[in-house]
Design a protein that fits this description.
By secondary structure, this protein is an all-alpha fold. It has 15 helices and three strands. Pfam families: Sigma70_r2.
């Protein structure tokens, strides 16, 4: 179900990050384009949320060796000044290609920092950055200069939206076979209840299938074909599958899967304190700092800062194994 802006948990002008993720995850680009203007002046609390405890056994096997080089290169890139952005946007909307390039390059650090907050266990940092850049393009293409929202704020929301949609694709890849498995159980229970032996369903069943199983005939028939090839429920698993005696029971399990396997329920990679260290070390919010300087700012020993940076880069380079937040 699509999340409406009125459903977002907020205190004053602060929006709960997880409820924002639900809204963005369940909104189409056109829906988000309308919702975004209702968020004017609001900030997303990106410091909360569960962060999975670092464990080298849980780092996963997907390694992004370009991450460190990318962040080092960014340290020499100058961020664009807020007062310059409005002029660039006007030039872009007048067709100036060079202004678009300047805006994109000047926003690279913002995207890189935002990606740290939206990095989830099991997701790719570089992919988040790439999708964040797509968010800048979406912001440029959709921005109305006559609207009351400042472009910098408008762009920030689009960057986050595209990153959440990127994470959603990974969640859907994980969820699809599980959902298909349970849907196939529904088909099997339905066929058993109606004593349907062969795979051919009479036209008289079509309306009932839509009503009872909440699927069209094409999906119904495809699930049967897949199952016949043994891709979903193997013979040795059929006994276990039969513990679900009714379609209502299976629907309850499907609802649990939908609730659990969502972007907002995927554990974060970093705490706010860890992001602060990476931010300072790679100069994502200003000039790059070194271990001694970071130590003075955060009241840490330089050796401790160095060890933290090394640990955090391992977390950043490896995708990590998927970890869901258990709300039960």
């Amino acid at each position: 179900m699509k999340k409406d802006v009125k459903d977002i948990k907020n205190i004053g002008d602060i929006i709960d990050m997880r409820s924002f993720e639900v809204m963005a995850e369940t909104s189409t680009p056109n829906e988000f384009k309308s919702l975004i203007l209702t968020l004017e002046g609001k900030k997303i609390d990106e410091t909360g949320g569960r962060v999975e405890k670092f464990d080298r056994k849980n780092i996963g096997n997907f390694y992004e060796d370009t991450v460190e080089n990318y962040l080092r290169e960014l340290s020499s890139v100058k961020s664009i000044k807020k007062e310059t952005i409005s002029e660039l946007i006007k030039n872009i909307q007048d067709g100036d290609i060079s202004s678009r390039e300047i805006l994109m390059e000047g926003s690279l650090k913002l995207v890189a920092k935002t990606a740290l907050y939206y990095s989830k266990v099991g997701t790719s940092y570089i992919e988040l950055v790439q999708d964040g850049l797509m968010g800048i393009i979406k912001a440029i293409d959709n921005y109305d200069p006559d609207c009351f929202m400042d472009f910098s704020e408008y762009m920030g929301f689009w960057i986050k939206y595209e990153m959440i949609q990127s994470n959603k694709l990974i969640v859907e890849e994980l969820k699809s076979p599980i959902v298909a498995y349970f849907k196939n159980m529904k088909v099997e229970v339905y066929k058993s209840e109606n004593k349907i032996i062969n795979s051919e369903i009479k036209e008289t069943y079509e309306a009932e299938i839509k009503r009872v199983l909440n699927m069209d005939m094409e999906e119904f028939e495809n699930l049967q074909k897949i199952n016949e090839y043994g891709f979903l429920i193997k013979k040795e698993d059929r006994e276990e599958a039969e513990v679900y005696k009714s379609i209502a029971e299976i629907d309850m399990e499907l609802a649990k899967v939908e609730k659990l396997m969502s972007v907002s329920n995927l554990a974060n990679k970093f705490t706010a304190a860890e992001i602060k260290i990476l931010d300072l070390y790679y100069g994502l919010s200003g000039k790059r700092k070194y271990f001694e300087e970071i130590g003075e700012i955060l009241d840490m020993q330089p050796s401790k800062v160095k060890a933290e940076v090394e640990k955090l880069m391992i977390k950043l380079k490896y995708n990590g194994k998927k970890v869901w937040i258990d709300e039960d």
